Amino acid sequence: MADSEAADSAAAFTHLGSAVRTALSERGFETPTEPQRKAIPPLATGRDGLVIAPTGTGKTETAMLPVFDAVAGTERFGISVLYITPLRALNRDMRDRLDWWGDQLDLDIDVRHGDTTQYQRQKQADDPPDVLVTTPETLQAMLTGEKLRKALSDVSHVVIDEVHELAASKRGAQLTIGLERLRELANAFQRIGLSATVGDPGEVGAFLTGGRGCELIEVDVGSRLDVRVREPHVTDEDERLAGELATEPPLASHVRAIRDLVADNESTLIFVNTRQTAEALGSRCNALDLPIGVHHGSLSKEARIEIEDAFKAGELDGLLCTSSMELGIDVGRVDHVIQYQSPREVARLLQRVGRAGHRADRLSSGTVLTTRPDDTLEALAICRRAHEGLVEPAEIHHGSLDTVANQIAGLVMDFGEIAAARAYEIVTRAYPFRDLSRERFKEVVRELSGNRILWLDEEADRLEKSGGTWQYFYANLSMIPDEETYTVADMASGRTIGTLDERFVVNFAGPGEVFIQRGEMWRIAEVDDEESEVKVSPIEDPAGEVPSWTGQEIPVPQPVAGEVGAIRGRAGESFSGGASRDGVARDLVDRYPTDEYTASEALGPIERHAETDAPMPTDDRIVVEFENRDAVVNAAFGHTVNETLGRVLSALLGQQTGSSVGMEIDPYRIELDVPRGIAGRDIVEILEETDPAHVEGIIELSLKNSDALKFKLAQVAATFGALKSWQGNERFGRDRLLAALEGTPVYDEAVREVFHEDLAIEIAGEILAAIQNGEIAIETHGGRTPIGIDGRSSGTELLAPENADASVIETIRERIREDRMRLLCLHCEEWERTQEVGRIPDQPECPLCGSTRIAALNPWAEEVVAAVRADEKDDEQEKQTQRAHQAATLVQSHGKQAVIALAARGVGPHNAARIIAKLRENEDDFYRDILAQERQYARTQSFWD
C-alpha cells in the first residue's frame, strides 16, 4: 500500500473518539479493514447505513466502533444499543466479541433470547444493560413489557446482523414492523445493517430503514475470489478406497479429493447443500479417520459448540457444514473453502467461499467439487457470474398478511387500545408493507376480531385487547412455522444425537429405516409420537446399507440455468461445425475457471446430443422429447420457473384427458408421465396457446387439490388464530379447512406464500409470451436424447452406489416376503384372505370359484373391499373399485411378481405395472426398481393430493 493510501486508510479511525482509539491500539487494530475504511466515516456521523461485505472482514467492529464511540462516556439510563442477530449461536459469538470492548469503555453488555433465565430477564428489566444482544423474536416480547418498554425508549442505535438472511424471510418482515413499533417508543434511532453480498443493495437498504434513505457501503467480493471448479477423476487409489468405504469409485474419488484439499490447507470449511450429504460424507471421512467434523442445524446445541470449538482450536482440520456456517459464527481462521456440488446460487457461493482468506488480506480461496455434467456447467456459470457481481436479489416477503395479523396484535399489546388508522400508519411505514391497502388491512383486522384475538369497535374504529390477545401474541412471537421437533436418542446410551423436523419424521421415519446423523449411520427402532422422540441404534457395519433419506434441493435461479443453456448452445454449434471435444473444452477453460478434464467431462452429453438429429436445448430453445408415455420438456429456466410451467402443463393435460399427470422437475427439464393418447404436439400447443395472463389462475386452481397448499394453510391459519394450535397432519380435516377459509385473508396469504417460495408466476408468463412471439423457439423430437436422459439422476445426491449392495436387496426381499397382503376374488366377490406374501402361491386362485382374477390389496383396505361389494357406488367407491380391478389384472397376468410389486410401499397398480414391464437381466434388478419407487414415494408423499 502506498503511503498516501495508508494514511487514508488509517484516517478512518480518526473519526472515532480518544477512548475508542486507545482501545483499538490495545486490541492490536492498527489498520482498518476495507469495510471499516469505507463505513466508519459515514456511520460516525449518525447516518443509517448498510454494510455489505464477506464474513470475516471485521463487519461487527465496523458497525460497533462508531456506535460505541457515540454512547461511551455519555449519561445513560435505559438500553442504548440493540444488536439483533437471526441465530442464538450468533448471540453467543457477539457476546464473546463485545465483552472486551464493554470492559474497556465501561459499557454493560448483555444477551437476551429464548433461553435466558427468568432471573436474568428480571435483572435486565430492573437494571437495563447499555448494549443488548438479542433476536428478532425476543424483541417482539420486549416491546410489550412495562419495564422493558421504558428501557427501550432510550435506544439510540440498532444494529442488525445478517440482514440479507432476514430480508428473505417472514421473520425479517415481522422485524421491520417491530422496528416501527420501537420507533413509537424511542423516536428516531440510527439503523445499521450488516449483510453478505446481495444483488439489490438499495432494496435491502430500504428494507432496513423503511425507505428513508440509507448509506450503502459495499465491498466488492467477486474480484477477490480465487475459485476453481473440478470434477475429480477416478484413480487407482480410488478403486482401492471404494472397497474400503463400501461405495463406488466415483464417490471414493470425491472423498479422496476432499481429503487431499484439507491436507493442503490448515483449516478448511467443506460446504454441502443438505444435511444428509454432510452426514453421508462425514461417515466416509470417519471411516478413513480423517480430522474432519460435521456441523449442521439438526445437531444438538452442545454438539455444535463442541465441533466449533474443536475446529477453532485446530483439533479438526476440516468442517463439513451446511448453510448454518454461512452466517458469521466465529470458527477462527479459514484458509480454504470446498463447495461439494454446485452451490446453486451466486449469493451462496460468495457467502461460502467469502469466509476464507481475510485475516492475511489474501484472496478468498475455494474449490467447487462437482459430480456430473449439469453440476459442473452450473458451477462454472455461477463462478463467472460471481466474478461479474451478478448476484440474485433478496426475495423480500412483500405484504405477507399473517405478519400483518401478528403485528396488529403486537400493537394492541403495546398500547392496550389503538386507533385502527394509527395502527395502519405504523404498519405501512415498514418497507415490505408500504403498498398494503386500507381495505386489505381492514380484512385482516376483521379476521382477527372474528377469531377473538382482539376487539374491533367499528363505530370508534378502535382496536382493543380481548381475553385472547395475550395468549395469542406470546404463542406467536415467531414467524417460523410451529412444527414439532423430534429428538433422536441412542437406545443403548440414552444420549441425544440430534433432532429431526416433524414433516421429515411423518413422511420418512419408520422402524427399520436407515439414516445418517453426526457422520454415523443409525437404524430406527421406534418412533414415539407422544414424547416426540425417535429411538435409534447404531449400525456397527454400515457396508451395503443405503440411507433412506435425501434432502430438499436448493433452487437454481433462472439466470444461472439460462447461462448453462447458453453454454450448451455455443458448444453444440462447435460440435456441429466439426470441432473436437478437446478443442471445445479448451474454449470453455478460456472462459471459465476450470481444467480441461473437468470441461471435457461436462461436455460429454452435449457432444453425444450434437451427434443425433435432435435440436439442442439452449437458453432460447425448448426441446420437447417424447417416448411412449414419457415426455421431457428440456427448458433451461431454473427450478421455480420449471415448477410453474410443469404445473401448468400437468393441470391442462390432466384437464384434457381426465387423468392425472406425473411430474418431476430440475433446473433444465420438466419430466412428465402422461396419459395414453398425448403426444409431444399437445405439450407444444399448450406452451404456444396458453394466455400468459392465465398462469396464476391455472396454478391456483391446481393448488387447491394439493397437500402443499393445505399444509401451508394450516400454518397460516395458526398465525391468524384461526386454529388455536397447529396439531399436525391427522388431527383436523384439511379439505374442510380449505373450504372454510377460501376467500379469507388466511387463504390468500397461504397461496401468496406458496407462490413466493416455490413458483415464479411472472417469469413463467414472460416465457410463455416469448414462446408465442418467437423469441424462444420450441421444437419436438421423437425418442430420448442424451441431454434429456441426463436429468434422471439430477435430484439424487451421489451418496450411494447406483446398484445397491446385495445385502440391501436381500433385506427388501425379506421385508416384502414377511409383509401381509389381502387377496380378494373379483369374480365371485366372496372369497378373501390376508396372508404373508411369502406364503402366497405363484398364481393365486379363488378356492370357491376357481378364478385367477384376484386383487392384491393392503391388509387394511376394508373400504376397497366394501366398495367392490357395494351395489350402488359413489364416485370415490368407483375409483377404489377401478384400482382393485387394475390390481387384479396385474395378478392374473403376472402372478406372484405382481403381488410383490403391489406390496411395496407407495406402489399402486400403475407404478407396479411399470416396474413389472421393464426388461431385466436378473431378479435383483426387479427389487432395485421397487427400492427406487419406494424412495420416490417417500420423497414426494407429503405433496401428494
UniProtKB/TrEMBL annotation:
Q: Keywords on this record?
A: ATP-binding, DNA damage, DNA repair, DNA-binding, Helicase, Hydrolase, Isomerase, Nucleotide-binding
Protein name per Swiss-Prot or TrEMBL: DEAD/DEAH box helicase
Q: Which family does it belong to?
A: Belongs to the Lhr helicase family. Lhr-Core subfamily.
Alphabetical list of PROSITE patterns matching this protein: DEAH_ATP_HELICASE, HELICASE_ATP_BIND_1, HELICASE_CTER
Does the keyword ATP-binding feature in the UniProt annotation?
Answer: yes
Highest taxon, organism lineage: Archaea
Coiled-coil residues: none
Highest classification ranks of the organism: Archaea, Methanobacteriati, Methanobacteriota, Stenosarchaea group, Halobacteria
Task: List the CDD domains hit by this protein, alphabetically.
Answer: DEXHc_LHR-like
Outline the extent of the Helicase C-terminal domain: 257-412
- What's any GO biological process attached to this entry? DNA repair
Region Disordered: list its residue ranges: 26-50, 533-556
What terms describe the molecular function in GO for this protein? ATP binding; ATP hydrolysis activity; catalytic activity, acting on DNA; DNA binding; helicase activity
Where's the Helicase ATP-binding domain?
A: 40-216
